[in-house]
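Input sequence (239 aa), recorded before submission:
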Amino acid sequence: MEHAHAIGRQRAAGALAWRPEWPIALLVGLAWIAACVVYASTGGEHRGTGAATALSGWTLMAVTMMGPMALPAVRHVALNSLRARRLRAMTIYFAVFTAVWVAFGAVALAGERLATQTLGIDGRVLLAAALAVAAAWQLTRAKLRAIYACTRTVALPPIGPKADVACARFALKQGRRSVVSCWALMLVMAAVGHMNLAWMAALTAFVLFEELTLVGRQTLWPAAGGLAFAAAVVAVGGY
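Predicted structure, C-alpha cell format:
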C-alpha cells in the first residue's frame, strides 16, 4: 500500500512539473468561484456603484476571463525559468498581464458611466452598440494580426533582475496584443455589467475558442455574423 502511495505521489509530482502553471490556473479557478459569489449577491449589477468598487469588480472579471487565455504564456515563462524562480516569474507575468486589462477597464468603465449617467444613453442601446462594434472589429486586419500573434514568445534570461524585466516586458507585449484582439468584446462586458455571469461564461468560451484553436482563428467572419445578430436581438428588445 505504501509503495502504491509513493508511486501515486511521484506521478502527481511529475504531472505538476510538466504543468508548472497550475498555481495560476488554480488562481483563475478561485476567481471564477468568487465571481459566482459576487453574482449571487449582486445579480451582476454594477451601475450606481462607486468607481473603486466597479474597478475591483472589473479586476476580478479580467482574471476570470483573460486568465485562461494567459495560461499558455504563463507555462512558457515557467518552463523557461529556473525551477527556484518559476513561481516568481509566473507571478510577475500574470500580475503585469492583468494590470494591462485593469488599465483598459478603468477607461472602459469611465466611458460606460459617461454614456449612461451623463449622456443618458439607455443600457440596452449601449449594449447593442458594443456588440455591433465587436462584430465590425472581427473583420479588421488588426484583429487578425493580433489573433495570430498569440503564440509568439520571447527568450527569457535565467536569473537576476534581467529575468524579472523580461517577464514583465513579455507580459506587456502579450497584454497589449490581447487588448488589440479583445477590447471590443470587453466593451460588451462593460455595457452589460461586468459581473454578469452568463455573459462572462459565453464570452470567455468565445475568446478561448478564438485564441487557442486553429479553427477559431479561421472563423472570424462567422463570429462577426453571430455578434451582429446578437446586436440586432438586443436592439429590438430581445435581451
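Checked by second reader. The chain has one domain: 2-235.
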